[in-house]
Amino acid sequence: KILAKRSRKYGRLPMCLVIAPTRELAIQIQREFERIQPDVASTCVYGGVSIGMQVGAIRKGVDVVVGTPGRLIDHLVNATLDVSAVETFILDEADEMLKMGFQDDVEKIIEYLPPSKQTNLWSATMPAWVKDLAQKYCRDVVFFDMVGSDTTRTSITIEHIAIACGYDNHANSILRVVKKYGKGGRVLVFCRTKMEVDRLANFPSLKPMARVIHGDISQAQRERTLQDFRAGRFEVLVATDVAARGIDVPEVELVIQTSVPEDSNTFVH
Questions:
Q1: pLDDT score recorded for residue 244
Q2: pLDDT at residue 151 above 60?
Q3: Pairing mode, if any, of strands 88-91 and 186-191?
Q4: Could you tell me which residue ranges the Helicase ATP-binding domain spans (predicted)?
């Protein structure tokens, strides 16, 4: 649809808006647009970097804008982004938007969009807010349920192993698990806190093979770390759950959670 209607006019307004809960996921989505259809002009807007280059890209004219809630609101409030021509609106990881406190921001952004848009809500789980959002802002709502009534369902291709381990033995145990189950591929380790991420990654036996991602790492460094991880320049990425939300690296062979997730939805994600 975008290809059929797009023009190369300077300053054209975007026809598609995508919201993602994290900067890493937003960047990843925008890169997929570039990979799948290079003729569709897209740009990504997110915090932690200068807004000036983003404004310049939007002014030139784009077909698709992908962004995080806070930075999108900055652009909308400052009138550097006009979404009046948007025909397709996509909210990715809708349940995580709620969990991360973006409910008000998302609804504020929706108010800027034309009523005639098509809305797509993607969510691994279906909390009440997502259903309410669909009923409030969508017409002729259609639900596609790929999970069914089993809300704890996971992929049948994934083997799950539980290992009892004391806190002080985490690093040594993770190293043994990586050697046994990593099979030479990428390994993603989830921790609850930034302090735990840094502690594990700096453990002498893990330090040579590990790097970290969490909220205190600069955006530029996070992007470099993810790029190197995808390229296989190091083996183990240690990250907080929020920072690594939605990261797609097909070469990941092993995922380790250092503690039992707070709820089943977190585990399913």
A1: 56
A2: no
A3: unpaired
A4: 1-144
pLDDT band at 4 (very low <50, low <70, confident <90, very high): low
Tell me if domain 2-137 and domain 167-268 are identical in fold: yes
- Could you tell me the pLDDT band of residue 189, with boundaries at 50, 70 and 90? very high
DSSP sequence for 168-196? GGHHHHHHHHHHHH-TTSEEEEEESSHHH
Fill in the amino acid letter for 223: E
- What ranges do the domains of the chain cover? 2-137, 167-268
79 is written with which tokens?
A: 């009138």
* Closest of 171, 220, 224 to residue 211, by C-alpha: 224
Strand partners, 210: 236
Residue 134 in this model has a pLDDT that exceeds 90: no
Alpha-carbon Rg for the chain, nearest whole angstrom, is: 20
Query: At residue 121, what are phi and psi to the nearest 5 degrees?
Result: -110, 120
Kindly list the distances between the CA atom of residue 105 and the CA atoms of 67, 79, 189, in Å, as whole numbers in the listed order: 12, 16, 30
Return the minimum-mean-pLDDT range out of 9-13, 156-160, 175-179: 156-160
Its pTM stands at 0.72
Q: What is 2-137's CATH topology?
A: Rossmann fold (3.40.50)
Q: What is the CATH number of domain 167-268?
A: 3.40.50.300
* Alpha-carbon span 153 to 265, nearest angstrom: 10
